[in-house]
Amino acid sequence: GETFTLLSIGDGLVSQIPALLISTAAGIIVSRASGENNIATDVRGQLFNKPYPLMITGVFLAVLGMVPGLPILPFWALAGGAIGLARLRFRQIREEKETVIKKSEEEAAEPSETKPAELVMVDPLELEIGYGLIPVVDPKQGGDLLDRIGLLRQQLALELGVVVPPIRIRDNVALESNTYVVKLRGNPIASGEVLPGYHLALIPDDATSLPPGIETTDPTYNLPAIWISQRSLPEAEVRGMAVVEAPAVITTHLLEVLRKHTHDLLDRQEVKKLLEQVKETAPALVEELEPSLLPIGVIQKVLKRLLQERIPIRDLITILETLADNAASTKNIDVLTEYARASLAPTITRQFKSSDGKIYVVVLDPELEQLLLEKAQRGDLMPSTLGLEPQVSEQLIQSAAQITKQMLAERRDPVVLTSPVIRPTLFTFLSPLVSDLAVLSYNDLLPDAEVEVVGQLTLREEAQLV
To answer: HSE (CB half, 13 Å, CA atoms) of 433?
Structure first.
């Protein structure tokens, strides 16, 4: 029985050795498929780079050599080799650390030279964050804000036809820990506060109770909201609340800010780049237009006017064709912009069309529109005041603000439809105080567009939607 047991167990162990070798070889081949080095370098690096596993292996082999019945000489020889390699790696790591420390001390001792040009130039876009938001940005800590901003720039390029310059992100210890500030050419244009690790849940109008959290205001749309933890997410979803992660809150706010200020980023150099791109496909158009018909500054102003009213300029060839056709008769920026808008009527119609295919608009009171048209013909139409008395202008602004609020509450784009003669001046007058209101002319829409009038801007009584 003893002989049979020894032979059967020994035979089983011997038959498993080839299978073990084959499995080990297959594992090595599969695991190194993603490596860039050869297999010898990978094996050497994985087995001998870490000194602690080698030291543990050497001690374990030395203990096995003292087990009765096992040959002591081979085990102790292997143990000595493993321990020797471990000590060698300890020495190499210590020398590498000393070299790095010495190099860093030498670099710190050298005076840092700051180029004067770096102090003079201002970044077009900056995002300053408090120290508490660093984990949201740092990829090593799981932050994905940089990737989100890259996707944001792609979205704006597809939406408006302009490549937003890179956004420099800085940490500012002077800010509150969870605060961020968006700067345009060094000037703050927006700010907000987010809580990393929490989710922002927008509070519905019909909400009767809320999940536990910290009440706040959404920085993008200025709506009531609440910061909730991860465990409160199911409760918020059951209540029908829209939930947004902290990095998404920053990028959404940044997206809306850039939509409003894209025209401020379109300088002459950027327009020159756009013209060079068009020149690759339509060289005759660019050569005819610039600079013989229109200087690059005029083209820039027309494009800026379009972007200021959120009209995409992706169809740049159509815009330039329109400018080339009309540049010989006028150099007026407002007139050229209106011609360009008329040529983009399909785009503008699609942009303001609702899900049901209709464009919901408000119109000016006939008496008010007739008054403004008469002032425009006499040359008395002033962009800042429309040539109206202060109290009348204030009443018009209040009427426009009220109608805009009502249309936004009904999830409709606030649009005023008026004559192309007074459209630019009316927009210039209303846009600083009623920023969400779009002012369109009859030429901006296709003839077959389905337009439904839902209200009227009037000075006689309080404005109401139909």
So the answer is: 15
